[in-house]
Specification:
Strand content of chain A: 15-25%
Structural class of chain B: alpha/beta
Helix content of chain A: 40-55%
Strand content of chain B: 25-35%
Distance between the termini of chain A: 33 Å
Radius of gyration of chain B: 18 Å
Radius of gyration of chain A: 32 Å
Order of helices and strands of chain B: HEEEHEEHEHHHEHEHEE
Order of helices and strands of chain A: HHEHEEHEEHEEHEHEHEHHHHHH
Number of helices of chain B: 8
Oligomer: heterodimer
Number of helices of chain A: 14
Largest sheet of chain B: 6 strands, mixed
Strand order of the largest sheet of chain B: 6-7-8-3-9-10
Largest sheet of chain A: 6 strands, mixed, barrel
Amino acid sequence: MGKRLGFEWLVALRFLREGRMQTLLIIVGVAAGVAVVAYISALIGGLQASTLTKTLGAQGHITLRSPQDVVQSARLAEPGVMALTETQPRAQRLRSVVNWQLLLPVLEAMPEISDVSPMVSGSGLALRGEAQQSIALLGVELDRYDRIVGLRSKVVAGVARLAPGEGIVGRELADDLGVRVGDRFSLQTGAVTESVRVTALVDLGVRDLNRRTVIVPLRAAQNLLGLPGGVTNLDIKLHDVWTAQKLAEDLRARYPYKVESWQENNAQLVSALNAQSVSTGIIRSVVMIVVVLGIASVLVVSVVQKGREIGILRAMGTTRAQILRVFLLQGAVVGVLGSALGILIAVGLIAAFTYFVKGADGQPLFNITLPWDTGLKVALLASVCGVLAAIAPARRAAAMDPAQAIRL
Amino acid sequence: MKQAQAATTLIALKGIHKSYNLGLPSQTEVLHGIDLQVARGEFVALMGPSGSGKSTLLNILGLLEPMTTGSYQLQGEEMRGLDDAGLTLRRRQTLGFVFQFHHLLPAFTALENVTLPAMMINGQVSAQQLQHARDLLADVGLAGAEHKRPAELSGGMQQRVAIARAVVLNPPLVLADEPTGNLDQAASSDVFALLRRLHAERGISFLVVTHDAHLAARCDRLLELVDGKLHSDTVTVN
């Protein structure tokens, strides 16, 4: 291949070298396009990953609950009779997931599922002195729950521990109640009040969650919420978050529970992420089209400028196919060189973003990286675009009449 | 006899007509029935006033333009009806070109320009071909100028490189369109002498378009083209 294309390579590279400024212009143009595409891909990818991590950091990928109580008419409407009904929605009471102890190992055995955590959740009041805060009470098995939301990594004070009588509190709630690690406060739910000793403060990533979250042992919550031996939901973590929707549909088909994927629970977020992905895709496509047009327009000019040389080569016996390959190779070379430079620029832009753009805590807003496979795909795409852009100019060069071209 | 004649005949044109803008109101016939034979080893001059059709005839001979009607046999093979690939192959195998304005590739050195025909065919230049090109440049008086680009050479030197390029693969026929037209008298004479020497040493046939009567007189045969017709075909006495 190298020997067979030796002539074409030589002529292509010499033509590129001869028109240095033009060649540099195309390479910089390709580099700019590749840099934009790669940088946007990394930026949006990082932003979406960060958003998902924050969103899914405090919840399971799939949540399984008991089905809601629904009102059903005591009598079906007779055929041909239109029934106008008005129903009062049923108040939803805390209900346990039926047979959850049997269901848990079945779920854990599914290949898509990495972890399952039973939870009792309800509402209550946190009391300390004059302070009184409405809270969301979560009763969990600490190790299982930690595997779902990474609770231990969110501890900002103390050590996460849930022995009987102990609890973990959101950072802002601790401030509101005036408690530190080791202090006690009262938890009240309906008619039951229990004293809880704070073992750790956590930052769940969302201030509102921090302001109302109290995590206690599963048994304590069962007692407080009047659900002995029961759980209100099973939180499920998956190996691949994007399989949640499909698996939720499968579980709904198989079991009489209310099963919701994180996508269903965060429909607006998913829509926003999809819209973001579509917009990013459109921007990337437009940028690559501009790159292709830029390469093509410069190469067309090059073909006109090199008309006489093309005529001479054709007169000497260079075939149309050889001339075509000369210009296609030029497109490939500028595509590859521009891609390489573009990736370097993108890496630099990412480093600059990470260095200069920081959150209130002085840390980078979110983690941006350019995965090597993304960089390679963008570079390959740009290189292919270089060749595609060269097709029209190459065909024009190959079709030149040598006699006329020599007279140029 | 006929077979012997055929074996020595390099070019055989019969009834060559060439028209432009066929079928249009502006249709113009430039060549009106040219009959011509050129034998192997001939050194032929083609003269004529501007607009007589010399360049057109040369382009047809060089397989760069098709004839409208007529027959063109090159080395006994009919060229009419060949597709572009066939014509390109014949150009590669049979013809060398020397243009008025040298038409060297400016991005290549003198040596690279001369080795381009071999590179074009094989994809690479062998050591033997490289040495042959060096020897040829030395033969045309350009030893030491191998690595210079055309812009660094004088007009005469550039034309010598072009001649070396035209003969490097020892083609049976070299077509030269006003090879001295852009040179001063001294350089013209040197270049023409070089063409004659290469003709004598290598047996290459030359067909040279020229306006210079003195140079034409130094050729073996003089063709005169007037208004698209072969006005005269004379053997010169040197």
